[in-house]
Amino acid sequence: xxxxxxxxxxxxxxxxxxxxxxxxxxxxxxxxxxxxxxxxxxxxxxxxxxxxxxxxxxxxxxxxxxxxxxxxxxxxxxxxxxxxxxxxxxxxxxxxxxxxxxxxxxxxxxxxxxxxxxxxxxxxxxxxxxxxxxxxxxxxxxxxxxxxxxxxxxxxxxxxxxxxxxxxxxxxxxxxxx
Amino acid sequence: xxxxxxxxxxxxxxxxxxxxxxxxxxxxxxxxxxxxxxxxxxxxxxxxxxxxxxxxxxxxxxxxxxxxxxxxxxxxxxxxxxxxxxxxxxxxxxxxxxxxxxxxxxxxxxxxxxxxxxxxxxxxxxxxxxxxxxxxxxxxxxxxxxxxxxxxxxxxxxxxxxxxxxxxxxxxxxxxxxxxxxxxxxxxxxxxxxxxxxxxxxxxxxxxxxxxxxxxxxxxxxxxxxxxxxxxxxxxxxxxxxxxxxxxxxxxxxxxxxxxxxxxxxxxxxxxxxxxxxxxxxxxxxxxxxxxxxxxxxxxxxxxxxxxxxxxxxxxxxxxxxxxxxxxxxxxxxxxxxxxxxxxxxxxxxxxxxxxxxxxxxxxxxxxxxxxxxxxxxxxxxxxxxxxxxxxxxxxxxxxxxxxxxxxxxxxxxxxxxxxxxxxxxxxxxxxxxxxxxxxxxxxxxxxxxxxxxxxxxxxxxxxxxxxxxxxxxxxxxxxxxxx
Lengths: 178, 484
Hints:
The structure holds two protein chains of two kinds.
Chain A: E1 8-13, H1 16-28, E2 34-37, H2 44-48, H3 56-82, H4 99-121, E3 145-150, H5 158-166, E4 172-176
Helix pairs in contact in A: 3-4
Chain B: H1 35-47, H2 53-79, H3 93-118, H4 125-148, H5 175-208, H6 212-222, H7 229-262, H8 274-300, H9 309-339, H10 343-354, H11 358-370, H12 378-381, H13 384-410, H14 426-449, H15 455-461
Helix pairs in contact in B: 1-15, 2-14, 3-4, 3-7, 3-8, 3-13, 4-5, 4-14, 5-6, 5-7, 7-8, 8-9, 8-13, 9-10, 10-11, 11-13
């Protein structure tokens, strides 16, 4: 597919309410390649943009289970197979005493999975992104709310989409360069 | 990147909140704020406010203490632990007292950031960032002590399981190895939690910084964060799950620290109440430290709108509650010493109350039991000066508690012939002061270069952050006046 001449159209809004309403109407108009940008998380956008639930919790669960099993295996292997030695007559596999380290390893691996997994699924770090080309986008980290319809959207048309966005009463609409 | 500051947005300076005479629960954020003023006010401390003379003075003072710490540790490495006051019955001394004290202080940071988040206590928002920073720095100070106490600290890495030519493994059945894992995990998870909270604020600083260096450094730290709804969605999940992981972690850490004592057979240590009693003590000490830091910082940087009386009062209440739990621990220790009928336990307790260190025990009860009772009174809780003094007293009290646990349990053990007294030397004291300096040093760098209050979470506290149901854009007051 040929690269569209621009990345998309970016509409700027004043309040989270306006953004959620605009996102809902954009979805109802049939646009699918959209994204919203806000200075803080807005729960309602999940529904407004029809975002799919994230796989992150599953990944974290897998990470935690691996940390747990790995942590226990490390201690069991070292204490019973690789280097068994008698401490106060306790059995080599004295599993109750292995619990603290097992627990800490569970939390450690699950925690790293949570953060690294979040970054990876979000595609971060990503130093360059086309939306940064719009000078006013700097306000997305302060007090403005943006809605972007990407040019790859099957319904996208430079003029008609612009008219559609203007109909949502934004502060302004900007073209996003690549 | 091409970011320009565009078109000044109408600024509404937040009017300072007047302290009501009889405080009905004050709000968690001062009135009259908008997304823009919250952002500007917090980021201004980092970006635009000139660094004050007082900051430089404080920083020089902290740096001097850090140099003392480095000198004390250097001398210790050259000469050995003989420069400390530790002797044969009292082998643990200041190093372990300070380790437990610092670790405990860290715990309030996690409680505020994780547990109060899960309990949906929105007042935590303005204090969680620096409480988390406090956790990190306190754990860093704590970790110094067991390492330099080892005698040959250059072999500290032997405690980590790594493939080695000696074919050895750590001793998994020892609480001291539990400690290595617990403290390391605690530090790393606290660091992750702190950093993940900083990412959106780093993006704010990147977009608002006037200097190129600032834009580059904050830009790297922000990792290209752009506030996308998809990103926020995963971000919130990750943050919440991390909080859920940190909650049992913080309990496990001080439990494991208490195992260092409780798993031994020394009278005064060998008791099952230690884990919960240590955790409560940690929260008590930690909240005292948060108050000790929050009160001067909010006055110094004029953040009374964000760290309101409600925060201080709530922290005072938590301090009172955890303090009572700790006092229950003292009572049970004494009761069990008597009820067990164990001669050694009994003589340990009598020695603790009336022996050569007895005056410290009564001073401890004054600090940790008597003085915090002032917090029952609303008039006291709403007096900032009283809160500050009570918090300082509790900091001292919790340090005394660890001194008493370590020293009075060890200095008179089973055989009178091996009894001895423990006195710290100048190097013990200087090393301890040095870690206080390191803590302040890190904290001062933090308030100067990073947003000490979570900006994005503060935005969510504003009434206009709420999405109105039927699309009515009437955030009453400020919002609708901003141009259309």
